[in-house]
Amino acid sequence: MEKEGPVRILFVIDQFTSSHAGTEGQLLQLLSNLPAGQFQPELLVLRPSSYVEAGKMPCKTEVLGTSRLFSLKTWLAMFKFAQRKKQEGIALCHVFFNDSSIICPPVFSLVGIPTLISRRDMGYWYTPKYLWVLRRTARFVSGVVANSAAVKQVTAEKEGVPAARISVIYNGYSASTDELSPLTPEERSSILSGLGLPVDGRFVVLVANLREIKRIGDAINAIGTVRNSVPDSHLVLIGGGNQEPYRELAVSLGVADYVHFLGERSDVRNILRAMDAGLLCSESEGYSNAIVEYMQARLPVVASNVGGNSEAVEHGVSGYLFPRGDIKQLAAYLVCILRNEDGSAQQMGECGHRKAHRRHGLQTMIDSHAALYSRVLSSRLGAPDVEVR
């Protein structure tokens, strides 16, 4: 498609509050790394946030100013915005999060701008009202980007988007050799002591915001059982959210001294290098960013067998999958990894590391999106899915 200058793409998201969150982090990578000679990104957020107001975004950013999904005022404001963007030369819209994916496709279709939507979870937010609307706005969607085959399947089934219009593009991450190389014992001790952790302990890390859907309580319950077999084991929790109920649970179970709350961190990668196992207990997952970070850090992974987790973790090869909520099995797998009697933990970590490098390189993700954008703009929607294995 011949066009003077780079193609202008508008990205839309309900709200952008942190660069460390999964969806926001992937969007930020797109905004920062799409080839400048080919694409010129802009961003619209429905609701303001301190992060956006601080001017941290790498491209032109606007706030809609009204965001109630079922308000006529919101739809009128979006229509006027879409008209202006069409006049300014926006050629494509790519939408993230729920409300934006309902309002943008029909509105931007009216002004002649094709719209892609992203799906990155198993639809835990679906309600009968949302699904009713989504099934009717699906005909305005030019394509869907799913971050796992599991998400693709649930999107097609629930929202009625034809599977041929859903492309699987796995999450992408930058990785330097220095950051991801194995630590020396001295380097590991330095990291642990800097975090206030015992240097001779063995550590299970769980990276997730402290929300009910992440089932943090399962991890806290399991660590007591794990310590019966591995007395120097500890649980390290990294993520924002209300710690109080989980601290109370740890106290009630008598494991408060072995559960460490680090809060939201910007140095997660470095911390992971000093850990022994990565854990995810979630009720639902599309494709976990945390699991990829664990694999990059050469950690064997124990994860609930939900959503796209089975696409990320090869059971018995790069880690273990346990039935959601099965604390006994979860603990048993952690004990197996921490004891490491046959040396398989290191082999699992290396296997995961190779897979992360192959599937989740940042450039792979960027190139896959660029190819999809070009395909949509060329109206070749019947081409094979963009799918990176």
TrEMBL record:
One MF annotation (Gene Ontology) recorded for this entry = glycosyltransferase activity
Query: SUPFAM superfamilies this protein is in?
Result: UDP-Glycosyltransferase/glycogen phosphorylase
Sequence ranges assigned to domain Glycosyltransferase subfamily 4-like N-terminal in this UniProt record: 22-173
Report the EC number(s), separated by commas if there are several. 2.4.-.-
- Keyword check for Metal-binding, yes or no: no
User: What is the uppermost EC class here?
Assistant: transferase
- PANTHER family in UniProt: GLYCOSYLTRANSFERASE
| Protein name, per record | Glycosyltransferase
The species this protein was found in: Marinobacter metalliresistant
